[in-house]
Amino acid sequence: MHVLQVPWYIAYPLIAGATFGALCYWANRSVYFPSKYPEGFWGLQAQVGAADVWLDTADGVRIHAWRVSRGDGPVTLFFHGNAGNITDRAAHFREITAAGSSMLMLDYRGYGKSAGRPTEQGLFRDADAAYDFLLKAGYGPGQIVIHGESLGSAVAVNLAARRACAGVVLEAPFTSARDVSRTVLPGIGPMLVWGFDSLEKIGRIRAPMLFLQGDRDEIIPLRLGQALYAAAPQPKSFWVVPGAGHNDIVEAAGAAYGHRLQAFYQTLGARAD
């Protein structure tokens, strides 16, 4: 039996290319850490007073969300981070609604009860579906506050750069996925992970922005949030939360978190008037 032998100068590049491709696939898939139903704290839905909402995206994916209504004030469209699902954000529901805003928080495709598998463009389509739902529910763009947390900050920037809104809140934001990977995997990280480039898009936002980040953020260096802030147009403000890491901003801020949001919402109302 004759065995085909591939010359080393062909085999080595093929092996290297396949290995690099596999690493890229693994690295970009590792951006997402979803908890699928029944994982999570689903009993908290009643505690935060949320109603179920089902959304159909432009590419036919069924998305699940929680909605809390609080009168005629603003409505916050909230995009959570890359891990868990909406049931891990009860503190955000409590603080944001107590500050005077209604709220819609979705689980991206592949998270919680939502169908599909998460991808960058998929998350952007999920965001569009949620925004369109609010318009159909009777909210005007001047009532919608787009609020993103961590990975959700990139989803928020992408949406706000394309569609009108009252204001934008970016919690633990970053410039791009590549820049974050540079801190997590020095050297090789930027070659493996890309996308979610908020730095390229933020200049197109035409709404007031509030940035907030912990001074002890162990995942996204504060300098990345500051670099994104520097590129953002006015009006804008940056609140560095003392003692807060990446996942405990609400808890570390305490009552100041709700007070800061309430003050931001009031400035938006004044601008609308």
Describe the structure.
- The protein has one domain: Alpha/Beta hydrolase fold, catalytic domain (Rossmann fold, 3-Layer(aba) Sandwich).
- The chain is 41% helix and 18% strand.
- It is built from eleven helices and ten strands.
- The strands form two sheets. It has an eight-stranded mixed sheet with strand order 2-3-6-4-7-8-9-10, with helices on both faces.
- A hairpin with a 5-residue loop joins strand 2 and strand 3.
- The N and C termini lie far apart (84 Å).
Question: Which SSEs are present, and which pair or pack?
Answer:
Elements: H1 8-29, E1 33-34, H2 44-48, E2 51-56, E3 62-68, E4 75-79, E5 83-84, H3 90-98, E6 102-106, H4 120-136, E7 144-149, H5 151-160, E8 167-171, H6 177-184, H7 189-192, H8 198-201, E9 209-214, H9 222-231, E10 236-241, H10 249-253, H11 255-272
Parallel strand pairs: 1-5, 4-6, 4-7, 7-8, 8-9, 9-10
Antiparallel strand pairs: 2-3, 3-6
List keywords for this structure.
two-stranded parallel ribbon, single chain, alpha/beta, 273 residues, Rossmann fold
Quick overview:
The chain has 273 residues and is of the alpha/beta class. The chain has 11 helices and 10 strands. The N and C termini lie far apart (84 Å).
Strand content: 15-25%
Helix content: 40-55%
What is the quaternary state of this protein? single chain
Number of domains: 1
Calculate the mean pLDDT score and round it: 88
Strand/helix succession: HEHEEEEHEHEHEHHHEHEHH
Integer-rounded radius of gyration: 20 Å
Low-confidence stretches: 14-28
Distance between the termini: 84 Å
